[in-house]
Amino acid sequence: MPRFLELWxxxxxRLLAALVQITVPLSLLSFAIALxxxxxxxxxxxxxxxxxxxxxxxxxxxxxxxxLVVQLFIVYFGLPRIGIELEAxxxxxxxxxLNTGAYASEAVRAxxxxxxxxxxxxxxxxxxxxxxxxxxxxAPQAMRIVLPPLANDFIDLVKGTSLVxxxxxxxxxxxxxxxxxxxxxxxxxxxxxxxxxLVVVSLLSIGQNQxxxxxxxxxxx
Length: 221
Hints:
The chain has 221 residues and is mainly alpha-helical. Helix 1 (3-47) runs antiparallel to helix 2 (52-65). The chain starts with a helix and ends in a 6-residue tail after the last helix. The chain contains eight helices and no strands. The chain has one domain (3-215): MetI-like fold. Helix content is 81%, strand content 0%.
């Protein structure tokens, strides 16, 4: 049996365990929080006057304009200097959620802005409130438009979890690093880690395509 295959078979259980125990829960929890943040920030920027819309704009600019690894270091290593101490997992969840929420909020905001103004006027002529207009007219159409960029944000988030090793979290990539440090085969081990990420992202892309077809099934081509 080739050495690389032997090492892959030997290491795969540990890598998959880290994937299931850390990477997947971290991705799902962070993205769920990011979606809430994205919707709230988008609505504030669209409908809430100064100064709250300025605060939302500043949040988006800061988290889109700085590297994720720097944000992780600030939350995990920096905040304890002002008395806020977090374990590695919640620090990673908070940072990933805030980072992804900033990107996703722009997708949500753009999807709402893409709705023709005539539909808002029609809803107003029917005496629909702003809340009812958003729930019955805007949200169903915006969801179909925003789905592809949100799916891409989730895929980027999954790949971004590979950076949490920098704050001592033992995720899929960190386990790969540990194994490579013991068997002195970094090329073989990092290739296996890359393949696992590739399989996960490929499955997510397939799911994204299926979901897009389902959501857009009623739309005429």
